[in-house]
Please model this.
Amino acid sequence: MFTKYLITFLVSMVPLIELRGAIPIAVGMQVPLMQAYIIAVIGNMIPVPIIFFFARKVLVWGQDKKYIGKFFTFCLEKGEAGGRKLQEKAGRGLYVALFIFVGIPLPGTGAWTGTLAASILDMDFKKSVIAVMLGVILAGVIMAAVSFGVFTAVTA
Model:
C-alpha cells in the first residue's frame, strides 16, 4: 500500500498533472478516496513555496540557454500571460480569482501555474499560498467526486 501512496504523492507534484491526475490514478489503484485526497493535496502543495520564490528566477536565468531556452521562455510567457489575464479580470479580487483559477480542475490551471502567476505579479506570499491551498482543496473535492462517480460506475 505504501507504494500506491508514494505514487499518488509523487504524481500530485508533477506539473500539469498535479492532483487532477493523482486522485483518479489513486482511486484506480484502489487507494481509499479520503486517503488519496489527503495525500494528493499535500503532494500538490509541497512545491508551492519553491515555485513562488525560485521558479521565476530559474526561468529568467534559463531563457537564453541553448537547450532549455525555448521551454523556459514558454513557461515564463505562459505564467506572465496567465498573471496578466488574472489581474485584468480580477481587479481588486485578485486572491479570489487566484483561488478560482487554481480550484477549477482544467489543464494548465493548477497550483504550479497559479503560483507562478502570483510570483510574476509580485503578490503577497502568505495570501497567495492561502488562495492556492484553498484552490487545491476545491480542485481535490471536484476530482474526488468525479473519480468516485466514474470508478463506481465502471465497477458496478
